[in-house]
Design goal:
This protein is an alpha/beta fold. It contains five helices and nine strands, in the order ααβαβββαβββαββ. β6 and β7 form a beta hairpin.
């Protein structure tokens, strides 16, 4: 029986390693792109803000789904982002220099630092429209450590960005009016994403 279990573990480990080689580390994954596009297509936001441009993958994904009368603003002080699209504005600023209003969607994927995220969130709150959505990337766990990101292991697996998970827990404790749904998986290598939206009772009549 022990030999069978060892064989199963070895095979599953090899499958995990093979899948890990296909994973994008840093930019959003294909599944993240599909989720972001679906959210935008379903809710039709007119003003989106991205915190963390990096190589522009997430910005291009959102622009692909946004209507022509919408706009996307990206904050990043580590790169100089540029996309040839009249709907896109790049601000070479830190996320804590956030200065927007009437926002429908905010995508957090910048510092991966709890205190910076909290400081930014406090600026984001008054800028949000009533039904605005906040998406926070990298809130999931990996079954195994496929890359040393400075994270650590918990019972669930390896937290590659632990401060993102601490961030969503902080929001839940301090702003319980924001409902949360987590898109996580251990059966596949997923960086994970958490969506937040203020609760409001649906009108019935």
């Amino acid at each position: 029986m022990k030999k069978i279990l060892k064989t199963i573990y070895r095979i599953s480990g090899l499958k995990f390693i093979c899948e890990a080689k296909k994973v994008k580390l840093g930019p959003i994954q294909k599944e993240d792109e599909l989720l972001l596009k679906a959210i935008i297509k379903m809710t039709n936001p007119k003003k989106c803000v991205e915190l963390g441009f990096f190589n522009g993958f997430s910005a291009k994904t959102m622009l692909d789904a946004l209507e022509q009368d919408a706009k996307l603003i990206s904050y990043d002080n580590t790169v100089h982002g540029n996309i040839n699209d009249k709907r896109f504005t790049f601000k070479y600023k830190s996320q804590v220099e956030y200065e927007e209003n009437n926002v429908d969607l905010v995508f957090f994927d910048a510092s991966h630092d709890l205190q910076l995220n909290i400081a930014t969130f406090l600026k984001v709150i008054p800028s949000l429209n009533n039904k605005a959505i906040i998406a926070i990337h990298d809130t999931g766990a990996w079954k195994e450590m496929i890359l040393d990101t400075g994270g650590y292991f918990i019972k669930e697996g390896y937290l590659h960005r632990p401060d993102e998970r601490k961030f969503v827990n902080w929001i839940k404790e301090n702003y319980p009016e924001f409902q949360q749904i987590h898109f996580h998986s251990l059966s596949k290598i997923r960086h994970g994403m958490t969506l937040l939206q203020r609760y409001s009772k649906l009108e019935e009549k």
